[in-house]
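Quick note —
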Amino acid sequence: MFHSAGVEFLLVGLGNPGSEYELTRHNVGFRALDFCAGNFHAETTRLKHMALVGKGEVAGHGVLFMKPQTYMNRSGEAVADAARFYKVKPENVIILHDDVSLPVGAMRIRYNGSAGGHNGLKSVQECLSSDQYARFKFGVGAKAHADMDLADHVLGKISPSDWKEISSNFEALVSALELIVQGQREQAMSKYNRNPKKEKTE
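Predicted structure written out below.
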Protein backbone atom coordinates (compact mmCIF):
# COMPACT_ATOMS: atom_id res chain seq x y z
CA MET A 1 0.00 0.00 0.00
CA PHE A 2 1.22 3.51 -0.80
CA HIS A 3 2.37 5.60 2.16
CA SER A 4 -0.46 7.72 3.51
CA ALA A 5 1.78 10.81 3.64
CA GLY A 6 1.92 10.81 -0.16
CA VAL A 7 4.92 11.59 -2.31
CA GLU A 8 8.08 12.55 -0.41
CA PHE A 9 10.66 11.83 -3.10
CA LEU A 10 10.86 11.94 -6.90
CA LEU A 11 12.91 9.19 -8.54
CA VAL A 12 13.53 10.20 -12.15
CA GLY A 13 15.14 8.18 -14.92
CA LEU A 14 16.38 10.33 -17.81
CA GLY A 15 16.01 9.25 -21.41
CA ASN A 16 14.23 9.80 -24.70
CA PRO A 17 10.79 8.33 -25.48
CA GLY A 18 10.37 6.12 -28.53
CA SER A 19 11.50 2.62 -29.49
CA GLU A 20 14.40 3.95 -31.59
CA TYR A 21 16.08 5.24 -28.42
CA GLU A 22 15.28 2.32 -26.16
CA LEU A 23 18.67 0.56 -26.22
CA THR A 24 20.88 3.66 -26.48
CA ARG A 25 23.43 4.90 -23.95
CA HIS A 26 21.32 8.00 -23.29
CA ASN A 27 18.43 5.81 -22.09
CA VAL A 28 20.29 4.08 -19.28
CA GLY A 29 18.33 6.26 -16.84
CA PHE A 30 15.01 4.95 -18.19
CA ARG A 31 16.18 1.36 -17.85
CA ALA A 32 17.50 1.88 -14.33
CA LEU A 33 14.17 3.44 -13.40
CA ASP A 34 12.30 0.47 -14.88
CA PHE A 35 14.36 -1.88 -12.70
CA CYS A 36 13.61 0.15 -9.57
CA ALA A 37 9.93 0.46 -10.40
CA GLY A 38 9.68 -3.31 -10.83
CA ASN A 39 11.51 -3.93 -7.57
CA PHE A 40 9.18 -1.62 -5.64
CA HIS A 41 5.99 -2.64 -7.48
CA ALA A 42 5.40 0.77 -9.05
CA GLU A 43 4.10 0.55 -12.61
CA THR A 44 5.06 3.66 -14.61
CA THR A 45 2.02 3.51 -16.90
CA ARG A 46 0.18 6.74 -16.10
CA LEU A 47 0.93 9.88 -18.11
CA LYS A 48 1.10 12.82 -15.72
CA HIS A 49 3.50 15.76 -15.25
CA MET A 50 4.73 15.22 -18.83
CA ALA A 51 6.07 11.83 -17.71
CA LEU A 52 5.12 8.19 -17.34
CA VAL A 53 4.69 7.85 -13.59
CA GLY A 54 3.90 5.34 -10.89
CA LYS A 55 3.73 5.58 -7.12
CA GLY A 56 5.59 3.23 -4.82
CA GLU A 57 7.11 2.93 -1.39
CA VAL A 58 10.84 2.72 -0.62
CA ALA A 59 11.77 1.90 2.99
CA GLY A 60 8.43 3.30 4.17
CA HIS A 61 8.68 6.55 2.18
CA GLY A 62 6.37 7.58 -0.65
CA VAL A 63 8.18 7.85 -4.00
CA LEU A 64 6.97 8.96 -7.42
CA PHE A 65 8.80 7.00 -10.13
CA MET A 66 9.13 9.11 -13.29
CA LYS A 67 10.20 8.72 -16.92
CA PRO A 68 9.91 12.19 -18.53
CA GLN A 69 8.42 12.09 -22.03
CA THR A 70 9.69 15.55 -22.98
CA TYR A 71 12.95 14.34 -24.61
CA MET A 72 16.25 14.66 -22.82
CA ASN A 73 16.96 18.38 -23.14
CA ARG A 74 13.58 19.31 -21.58
CA SER A 75 13.58 16.72 -18.78
CA GLY A 76 13.54 19.43 -16.12
CA GLU A 77 10.09 20.62 -17.16
CA ALA A 78 8.57 17.31 -16.08
CA VAL A 79 10.64 17.14 -12.89
CA ALA A 80 9.77 20.69 -11.84
CA ASP A 81 6.07 20.18 -12.60
CA ALA A 82 5.92 17.13 -10.32
CA ALA A 83 8.06 18.81 -7.65
CA ARG A 84 5.66 21.78 -7.52
CA PHE A 85 2.57 19.56 -7.44
CA TYR A 86 3.80 17.35 -4.59
CA LYS A 87 5.81 20.12 -2.86
CA VAL A 88 9.01 18.08 -3.08
CA LYS A 89 12.16 20.10 -2.42
CA PRO A 90 15.21 19.67 -4.72
CA GLU A 91 17.09 17.70 -2.01
CA ASN A 92 14.44 14.98 -2.32
CA VAL A 93 14.77 14.68 -6.10
CA ILE A 94 16.87 11.71 -7.26
CA ILE A 95 18.00 11.53 -10.90
CA LEU A 96 19.27 8.40 -12.71
CA HIS A 97 21.34 9.10 -15.82
CA ASP A 98 24.13 8.05 -18.17
CA ASP A 99 27.62 9.55 -17.82
CA VAL A 100 30.26 9.55 -20.57
CA SER A 101 33.01 10.63 -18.18
CA LEU A 102 32.80 7.35 -16.25
CA PRO A 103 33.95 3.95 -17.54
CA VAL A 104 31.36 1.34 -18.46
CA GLY A 105 30.15 -0.37 -15.30
CA ALA A 106 30.90 2.49 -12.91
CA MET A 107 28.19 3.92 -10.67
CA ARG A 108 28.68 7.16 -8.75
CA ILE A 109 26.31 8.87 -6.32
CA ARG A 110 26.48 12.66 -5.96
CA TYR A 111 24.27 15.17 -4.20
CA ASN A 112 25.10 18.48 -5.85
CA GLY A 113 27.40 20.09 -8.39
CA SER A 114 27.42 20.97 -12.06
CA ALA A 115 25.54 19.23 -14.84
CA GLY A 116 28.84 18.16 -16.37
CA GLY A 117 27.66 18.85 -19.91
CA HIS A 118 24.67 16.50 -19.62
CA ASN A 119 21.69 18.15 -21.33
CA GLY A 120 19.15 16.37 -19.14
CA LEU A 121 20.82 17.55 -15.96
CA LYS A 122 21.18 21.08 -17.34
CA SER A 123 17.42 21.17 -17.86
CA VAL A 124 16.74 19.79 -14.37
CA GLN A 125 18.98 22.41 -12.75
CA GLU A 126 17.47 25.26 -14.74
CA CYS A 127 13.89 24.23 -13.98
CA LEU A 128 14.49 23.49 -10.29
CA SER A 129 16.76 26.56 -9.91
CA SER A 130 19.01 24.32 -7.84
CA ASP A 131 21.83 21.82 -8.12
CA GLN A 132 21.06 20.35 -4.68
CA TYR A 133 19.47 17.15 -5.95
CA ALA A 134 20.79 13.59 -5.75
CA ARG A 135 22.03 11.80 -8.84
CA PHE A 136 23.13 8.32 -9.77
CA LYS A 137 25.64 8.43 -12.61
CA PHE A 138 26.00 5.25 -14.67
CA GLY A 139 29.19 5.05 -16.70
CA VAL A 140 28.69 4.42 -20.42
CA GLY A 141 32.28 5.14 -21.46
CA ALA A 142 33.87 7.87 -23.54
CA LYS A 143 33.62 8.43 -27.29
CA ALA A 144 35.50 5.95 -29.46
CA HIS A 145 37.68 8.78 -30.83
CA ALA A 146 38.03 12.53 -30.29
CA ASP A 147 36.47 13.51 -33.63
CA MET A 148 33.27 11.58 -32.95
CA ASP A 149 30.16 13.67 -32.34
CA LEU A 150 29.00 13.29 -28.72
CA ALA A 151 25.37 12.98 -29.81
CA ASP A 152 26.28 10.04 -32.04
CA HIS A 153 27.96 8.37 -29.09
CA VAL A 154 25.17 8.78 -26.52
CA LEU A 155 22.49 7.91 -29.07
CA GLY A 156 24.41 4.81 -30.12
CA LYS A 157 23.26 1.35 -29.09
CA ILE A 158 24.76 -0.32 -26.01
CA SER A 159 26.51 -3.61 -26.73
CA PRO A 160 25.28 -6.69 -24.82
CA SER A 161 28.59 -6.91 -22.92
CA ASP A 162 28.45 -3.24 -21.90
CA TRP A 163 24.83 -3.61 -20.84
CA LYS A 164 25.78 -6.53 -18.62
CA GLU A 165 28.35 -4.31 -16.88
CA ILE A 166 25.99 -1.35 -16.53
CA SER A 167 23.00 -3.33 -15.28
CA SER A 168 25.15 -5.18 -12.75
CA ASN A 169 24.82 -2.01 -10.63
CA PHE A 170 21.04 -2.04 -10.41
CA GLU A 171 20.75 -4.21 -7.30
CA ALA A 172 23.17 -1.83 -5.56
CA LEU A 173 21.08 1.10 -6.82
CA VAL A 174 18.03 -0.33 -5.05
CA SER A 175 19.95 -0.78 -1.79
CA ALA A 176 21.42 2.73 -2.03
CA LEU A 177 17.97 4.23 -2.60
CA GLU A 178 16.73 2.65 0.61
CA LEU A 179 19.55 4.34 2.51
CA ILE A 180 19.07 7.73 0.83
CA VAL A 181 15.34 8.02 1.58
CA GLN A 182 16.17 7.25 5.23
CA GLY A 183 18.66 10.13 5.33
CA GLN A 184 21.77 7.96 5.18
CA ARG A 185 23.37 9.69 2.21
CA GLU A 186 27.01 9.36 3.19
CA GLN A 187 26.55 5.67 3.90
CA ALA A 188 25.05 5.19 0.44
CA MET A 189 28.04 6.87 -1.19
CA SER A 190 30.70 5.04 0.80
CA LYS A 191 29.06 1.65 0.32
CA TYR A 192 27.80 1.76 -3.27
CA ASN A 193 30.01 4.08 -5.34
CA ARG A 194 31.76 1.74 -7.78
CA ASN A 195 34.50 2.10 -10.37
CA PRO A 196 35.39 -1.26 -11.94
CA LYS A 197 38.61 0.09 -13.49
CA LYS A 198 39.95 1.08 -10.07
CA GLU A 199 38.86 -2.25 -8.59
CA LYS A 200 40.90 -4.16 -11.16
CA THR A 201 44.10 -2.22 -10.39
CA GLU A 202 43.86 -2.45 -6.60
